[in-house]
Amino acid sequence: MLFFDKIFIRGQCIHCIVTHLFEWSCNMLYLILLLCLRSVLCVATGSPGLAPAVRLNDGNLMPTFGLGTWLGVTPEGLLAEVQDDSIEKAVEDAIDVGYRHIDTAALYNTEPQVGRGIHKKIADGALTREEIFVTTKLWNDQHAKEKVVPALKHSLQQLNMSYVDLYLIHFPVGTISKFTPDLTDYLETWYGMIEAQKQGLTRSIGVSNFNQDMIERLVRETSVVPAVLQVEIHLNLQQPSLLEFCRQRGIAVMGYTPFGPLFPGKASPGAPPPRVDDPALVEMARKYKKTVPQVVLRYLYELGVVPIPKSVKRSRIQQNIEIFDFAIEEADKRLLRSYDANYRLTSMPFWKNHPYYPFHS
Questions:
Q1: Cα separation, 351 vs 358, whole angstroms
Q2: How far apart are CA 166 and CA 254, in angstroms?
Q3: What is the pLDDT of residues 101-130, one digit of tens each?
Q4: Which residues are catalytically annotated?
C-alpha cells in the first residue's frame, strides 16, 4: 500500500479512489437491500398503504383499515342502485391516499366498479394485485352448498379477478328471493365456503352478522375457524363480549357502519347520543388535532376492530384513514365506552322468525 500511496493520477491518490469506491459500493449495496426489503414488505402487508396489517388465523395478512362500498338504502327502504361511476372513482382515490383494503359484496352491485377501479390503478403502476386486499360476500339466495363456488366465480367475473382475499357469508339467514325464507342450514353454506377456499378462489373465508353461538357451532362441526367476522360496530354498539370471544379464538373483526348514528342526518328519531357536534367529542378531537370521526375510527381500531367506513368524497376518504399517528388516552376511552347502548342499526326485522336470525337479545 505504501507504493500505491505515492502514485497520483490527476492529483488524486489511488488509495483514496479505492477507498471511496469501496464506501460507495457498500452504500449502494445497503440501498439495494433496503429496496428489496421494502418490496417484500409491500407484498406481504399491503404497503405502501397507511394501515398496518393483522395476521389472520390462516396465516394470511389483512390491512387493518378498509373502504366500504355499500351505497345504503333509499328513503323507501330499497337498496340504493349504482347510478354513476362514483364507486370506481372512490376506489381509485382510496388507493391513491393509502388504502389497501376494499370491501364489497354481491348484494351491493358494486363489484364491477370496484374491479375497474383496482385494475386502473394496477395499470397505472400504483400497485400490484398482490398489494390490494379485496373482500366480497355471498348473498342469502346462494346458501346451498353447491351454489357457493358458482356464486364466488360470478363475483370474480364481476371483479375481473382470479381470486379474492376474503369471502364472507353475508348473513346466516338464507332466502329464496327477496324476503322469502330459505331454511338451508348455514353449516352447509360453510362447507361450500371451505370448498371455495380449497379451490383457490379465495385466500381466506369468514362470516358476517353471525353471533357467538353460530360461530361456535361452525367450529365444533367443521373444525374450521372463520378467519374474520364482520359485524356492525360503532360507539352505540361496541359488542365487548363478542370482541373478546373473537380475540380468544384468533378471529379478526371487521366493523361496518363505524359511525352509527353519529351524523344527525343519518340518525333515526330516538337514536342515543352522541352526535358529531357533541361538545365533549369536539373538545377531544381538538386535543388530538383530529376530527370527531377520526377519533371514533381510532377508538374502534384500538378496540381491535378493522373499520371499513364508506364514502365517495376524496377528502373524507383521506381523512378517514389518517388515524395512525395518535393514540387515545385512557380517560377519553372511558368516555367513549360510556356511549355503548346496545343500539343496533342493522336489525333486519323481516327475518326475525327465521330459525337462523342472529340478533335475538
A1: 9
A2: 12
A3: 999 999 999 999 999 999 999 999 999 999
A4: 108
